[in-house]
# Entry
Amino acid sequence: MSAHSPRVRSGAEARRASRWVPALRGRAVVQRIGNGEERSLDVFDVSPSGLGARDRGSALQFAWMDGEAVSLAIDIGGEVQRRRGRVAWALPADDGVRLGIQFDGERNPTPIRLDLDGVRPDPRCALRVPAAQAMRRQVLPLCELDGCVVVACADLSDTASLQAIAHSFDKPLRPQVVDPEQLLRALRSVYGEQRVVVEGASDDPVALCNELLHAAWLRRASDVHVCPERDGIVVKLRVDGELETYRRVPRDLQPELLSRIKVLAGMDIAEKRAPQDGRFTHEFAPGRRVDVRVATLPTNHGERATLRLLAIDVESLTLDNLGFLPADLELARHQLARPHGLIVATGPTGCGKTTTLFAMLRTIVSTRSVNVIAVQEPVEYDFPGISQVEVDANRKVSFATALRSIMRHDPDVIMIGEIRDLETADIAIKAALTGHLVLATLHTNDAPSTITRLVDMGVEPYLLASTLRLVMAQRLVRRLCPACAAPARLSEDDASLLKRPGIGGMEVRVAAGCVCCAGSGYRGRTGLFELLPVDEAIAEGVRRGGGEAAVREAWRATGRADLLDDAITKLRNGTTTFPLVREAIAT
# Structure
């Protein structure tokens, strides 16, 4: 929807208009010239001549008058521009009032630009255009939004370039002007020296495999799933913990594609009836080499493959970026400064425990000179200053055997990928008792139950009380895109589901979807945490054999936030949404 004034168009103009319509999302503060009243609007469409917006706060009786003069402060991608205009139309809708505002004057002195540095291009759109054409034309398809393909370009009047790439899509184009230097950087990042495949135009398994890996890198996906079905192969990417379909591949390419993946991973290409594991290193861009772990599995429609991209982005892996509240961050740093003891991260599979421990290891390595050795299955991060050992059942290397050998290498800090049995737990406890700082993961639902779990394994309570310093339980939730998160109110029913009826009516945020997040409404993930510091009172209770209930009571007496408290704080500050919190924390 746009705020253009209607006029009669020629046939050529109509055809061009049907192929592209400017669109963008952001915020606008509108001031009514007559009485000075201000309203905050969600912008869902911007063009050179006007904008479309949504007034969520208006009651239907609030009158937006056609022709009413207004002044606007429009915030798109952090760049605020001011305009004057008039209300062209206003219509009631289920989510408030939708209105179009036409700018004064036929042309604006400067177009509203999208900050391209904050946008993640969707490979489902970007890779449909040949790299040579995109670089030559200086246009970059970004994503599909509201039934159109948003295209970044430096010049809105370059209709020839837009027409050239329009043939690659079956949907209208929405060109958005961007800074030429940002566009050039984005084009080089997306295409670079890669010879990506145009969808459906190649039967080369090598090029197809490269395309799938490149698409995963562009979307910052953690996994690529190659899933055979009756009528073809479905390729899915796991982005921020959620699966999204990337493309479909003809079934006759399945044997060649799987063989190419097996060759890269050093597997037996002749073995198709048994699961296999392997790994390889792929260079996505100069200096950006990423380890890829591969697993294949025979199914009723042929072999499937899962490719895990290990630690694509490690530069941002710090404690400050994980989502700790200030008090929890201070507590974590304090515990890491201690020379010995046991720190345990707990939670279900895939909740980010290993990521948290490696962020802690980076903090330790950056603050003092220590000998750090980590035992993992598999090795997921490659950091200087940390020696890493990979557990391998085929080579008879277990956590326990590796740890026994590690103790002869004079470590100061030891990281254990997972405490699975009493033998591993016993070595960890003894290492913590003998002057080592030990970081480990465990599978429990919350922090207090970790103590019960270790005692059930066979760890003596008095040893646990003497060594355990901190337990961190965590979950992962998707983070709202800051560019388009829309305000809302938490309903009384939702508050009751969280067993916190007092927060009903609290202002929260909901996902909307914009160019920056490729229409998903989310960008990245953040953690929900609860930290249980084992102080003297809790340690004494453990030493005396106090159960989980006693530990929980002593912990609550400290006033520290649990998982739900942390989640509600992140709901209140607009970091995530109620459905994600509800899914992550079963109350």
Notes: The longest strand covers residues 79-93. The chain has a mean pLDDT of 84. Residues 353-367 form the longest helix (15 residues). DSSP finds 18 helices and 24 strands in the chain.
